[in-house]
Amino acid sequence: MPDPTLDPAPDPRHDVRPTLEAVAARAGVSRATVSRVVNGGAGVRQPLVDQVRKAVDELGYVPNHAARTLVTRRNGAVAVIIDEPEFRIFSDPFFSRQIRGISRELNAHDAQLVLLLVEGRGDFDRVTRYLAGGHVDGVLAFSLHTDDELPAVISRFRVPTVYGGRPERTGAEGGAGTPPVPYVDCDNRGGAREAVRHLVALGRRRIAHIAGPRDQTSALDRIDGYRDVLPDAGPEMTVEGDFTAEGGARAAEELLDRCPGVDAVFVANDLMASGVLRVLRERGLRVPEDVAVVGFDDMASVAESTDPPLTTVRQDVEGMGRLMVRLLMERLDSGAGQWPASVVTPTELILRDSA
Amino acid sequence: MPDPTLDPAPDPRHDVRPTLEAVAARAGVSRATVSRVVNGGAGVRQPLVDQVRKAVDELGYVPNHAARTLVTRRNGAVAVIIDEPEFRIFSDPFFSRQIRGISRELNAHDAQLVLLLVEGRGDFDRVTRYLAGGHVDGVLAFSLHTDDELPAVISRFRVPTVYGGRPERTGAEGGAGTPPVPYVDCDNRGGAREAVRHLVALGRRRIAHIAGPRDQTSALDRIDGYRDVLPDAGPEMTVEGDFTAEGGARAAEELLDRCPGVDAVFVANDLMASGVLRVLRERGLRVPEDVAVVGFDDMASVAESTDPPLTTVRQDVEGMGRLMVRLLMERLDSGAGQWPASVVTPTELILRDSA
DNA sequence: GTGAAAGCGCTAACAG
DNA sequence: CTGTTAGCGCTTTCAC
To answer: Which residues form the HTH lacI-type domain (chains A, B) (predicted)?
Structure first.
């Protein structure tokens, strides 16, 4: 018995929220019946359903999630894990859009989005513990780098997962007993091919590529696309950037110093392309007259506001986010048996003024 | 190099997660003792503590969150509610940064981040139900507009909340019985003053303002700051934009048509300022020679890559996110009694080339 | 200091 | 169809 003289501050969390019991009493039925009604009302006679619904409304009953999870072993939540160094998430609208798509689709499935941002080893352990705790039904994992340990952890805890972007080890390459790894990615290689072919069709002869960091499969795939069309381009025609505007500018400087005769550049993302345009302008080179530029992503905030507006390869980021959720839900609903297939979404070349 | 701490390959039977009971059996103690150890180990003799810890490690025990929540009524999760029409979150790095700060601080407090994106009435009901369900210990709410209903819902369910950005109705204005509304915001008005004073010091005489949407307090506060310095500026010198680059461009067109003699513009955010710069360039006006431009936010991806780089008012977005979490945690730890005070963080004028 | 026992609110057999 | 009865895994008095 608490000492009344202490007069403990009332805690709002302990507000008496009505329970199933209360609703049952009010409706004059058993807890089980109320439970059935709350969960869809299948197999309950209509008059009773109405009685219960009425009681629920009058009491403002809302099921206790923790109690439900405890018995069903389902928590109605999905973790989104983004493992990305600070500089990118700070400046890249990519994640906002992807998350928007995920959020929408998750809402449609009545599931919650738990956001896990990973920045280093410490965070990594924390996420590991979280997954081990089985707090989420599934995982959507992003921005994996080729040296990432996350897939290992995820597969160790057998948490149903869908990756955003092709992970380094695909199912086909996995060792024995390794389940396939479902992912959603855009057709990076095909999109890159289309971009470079466009440059070729424009009559450009010395087409360079400013690539993304080689520890990301999207960057590698775009390089492959470039090489598909230009198998004979020398290695000096490809410079590696870091997907930031500043990195793009640095890469452009290096490229122009190295190959002054370049008349076109396929840049692996729009952010870098904006840096490239800046350098080109500083050097007095006209775009697209002297040098044509094509980006990748079609990040509206960047591509539409550069000078000149950027011709670029569009990928449907939001759609990819939604697709990831659908694949995961498919997996969850199928019991643990079925692994959904990966999906590669098409890209589209958007013509503006830079090429 | 693999980290050995990740290695303690736990019980091979992954599907059966060990419970307190199992740990107790293994350590030769009661469930209660294990519980005490797991929760800090206060009041348990050292040898027993060690035994239990050992058993926990060997079994790879991780507490079941749902069970714990059920009895403690604490879920160790905080909801971040962002109520923003799609166009902004799609193009504004602001949210990414704010969320990064929140995520970091939440991690430090061992709490989870549940992201709730609100886009319309339907979503609104869903969020309401979620909060009513008491699934989170607290709420961090963003991007409130003056006509927003969220504060009403939040206050109805008494969920501890901290707002990002000053809500329309502050505690001081609230009616009787309405608790004060703690928020974290930057000094919008002071920052705007500093920006405009800088323009004045530059010798500019016809200083215009391109404002944000009037249903957001940050936009209103920046207008106030502009007027503080220039109380005699005519109403034609202020044009309302929508915080997007495109909207900034439109506003600039309107402004230049209306007041051709303008020699400086204080723009309410960097995104709009980038649109303004584009229009200025298109009209053959040099920046800063003919027209000086100052933005607001110091969004690196925008301000550093415009031509010329943008002089702007910096606000510490990540720091504000962290601060919000700290205020909320303070509130949570203090029982229900204390309401933390709001915090207004300082801004800083960053000089680049546009003014 | 430690253990036994009573639930937290809900679902899911199993009876009736 | 509906009610009864067990727990889900954990914390928390309350005895010892």
So the answer is: 18-72
Quote the pLDDT of residue B13: 35
Q: Is the CB of A53 under 7 A from strand D?
A: no
For residue A128, the chain B residues in CB contact (below 8 A) are: 6
Q: Which residue in chain B is spatially nearest to A248 when comparing CA positions? A: B305
Same-domain status, B181 and B192: no
Q: Is the CB of B32 under 7 A from strand D?
A: yes
> CA-to-CA distance for A55 and A20, rounded, in angstroms?
10
A19 touches chain B (CB under 8 A): no
Q: Are residues A158 and A300 in the same domain?
A: no
Contact between residue A105 and residue A321 where contact means Cβ atoms under 8 Å apart: yes
**Residue that is last in its domain, among B49, B72, B95:** B72
From residue B284, give the alpha-carbon distance in Å to each of B279, B290, B353: 9, 9, 17
**Strand A183-186 to A343-345 pairing:** parallel
Nearest to A305 among B2, B64, B275 (CB): B275
Q: Which of A72, A92, A117 is where one domain is finished?
A: A72
Tell me the average pLDDT of chain B: 86
Cα(A327)–Cα(A139) distance, integer angstroms: 11
Residue from B115, B161, B16, B109 nearest A77 by CA? B115
Do both B151 and B172 map to the same domain? yes
For residue A47 the two structure tokens come to 């008059």
Nearest residue (Cα to C1') for C3?
B30
| 3-state secondary structure (DSSP) of residue A323 | helix
Both B142 and B92 in a single domain?
yes
pLDDT score at B3: 34
Element (H, E) at A247: helix A245-258
Question: Which residue is listed with tokens 């974290």?
Answer: B184
Residue A354 lies in a domain: no
Helices (H) and strands (E) in chain A, counts: 14, 12
Residue B352 within a domain: no
By CB atoms closer than 10 A (0-12, 13-18, 19+), residue A336 is exposed
CA distances A135 to A69, A77, A113, B35, B259, Å, are 10, 8, 12, 19, 59
Tell whether A297 is covered by a domain.
yes
Is residue A241 in some structural domain? yes
Strand order in the sheet with A311-314: A238-240, A207-211, A264-267, A292-297, A311-314, A348-350
Total domains in the fold of chain A: 3
- Report pLDDT digits (tens) over A43-64: 889 998 999 999 999 999 999 9
DSSP code string of B233-256: --GGGEEE--SSHHHHHHHHHHHH
SS (HEC) of A58-127: HHCCCCCHHHHHHHHCCCCEEEEEEECCHHHHHHCHHHHHHHHHHHHHHHHCCCEEEEEEECCHHHHHHH
Q: For position B52, which CATH number holds?
A: 1.10.260.40
Do A94 and A18 sit in the same domain of this protein? no
Could you give the 3-state DSSP secondary structure of residue A208? strand
Closest CA to A221 of A174, A142, A275, A168: A168
Provide the pLDDT for residue A181. Answer: 82
Domain assignment of residue A299, given as a range: 188-314
Rounded Cα distance between B311 and B287, Å, is 11
First to last CA, chain B: 50
pLDDT tier at A300 (50, 70, 90 boundaries)?
confident
pLDDT in tens, B259-283: 999 999 999 999 899 999 999 999 9
Question: Does the beta carbon of A88 lie under 8 angstroms from any beta carbon of chain B?
Answer: no
Give whole-number Cα distances, A342 to A180, A184, A320, B122, in Å. 9, 6, 11, 31
From the centroid of its chain, how far is CA B181? 15
Q: Is-contact A88 A142, C-beta < 8 A?
A: no
